[in-house]
Amino acid sequence: MALITCSECKGNVSTGARACPHCGHPLKAQDVHITHKQDDSYEKGRQEQLGKQEGCWDAIASVVWPLIIIIVIIIFAANSC
């Protein structure tokens, strides 16, 4: 999200806001004058970190599930004898 300038009080307001939090002036499309682009590097880093965590769980699952299947097969084979 970016910050815009309120046309009434000249305060910084998020583009997601419907009204200025400083003066309460309702924001309209013509009021949007971008003053500062928010740094998205934190959000990108967070998404990359979540992606790595999901990859880690995929690796663990790819090892655990075959072991569970082998154990179940051994148990059924032992019980059928």
Question: What does this entry show, briefly?
Answer:
The chain has 81 residues and is an alpha+beta fold. Helix content is 49%, strand content 14%. A hairpin with a 6-residue loop joins strand 1 (2-5) and strand 2 (12-14).
How would you describe what is shown here?
This protein is α+β, with helices and mostly antiparallel strands and 81 residues long. It has a domain at 2-37. It is 49% helix and 14% strand. It contains 1 helix and 3 strands; from the N terminus they run E-E-E-H. A 3-stranded antiparallel β-sheet has the order 2-1-3, with no helix packed on it. The relative contact order is 0.12. The model has no long low-confidence stretch (mean pLDDT 78).
What overall geometry do the principal axes of the alpha carbons give? rod-shaped
Termini separation comes to 66 Å
* Low-pLDDT ranges: none
Mean pLDDT: 78
Please state the structural category: alpha+beta
Rg over C-alpha atoms, rounded to the nearest angstrom: 27 Å
Strand order of the biggest β-sheet:
2-1-3
* Quantity of strands, as a count: 3
Order of helices and strands: EEEH
Largest sheet: number of strands, sense, barrel closure: 3 strands, antiparallel
Q: What's the helix count?
A: 1
Residue share in helices? 40-55%
SS strand fraction: 5-15%
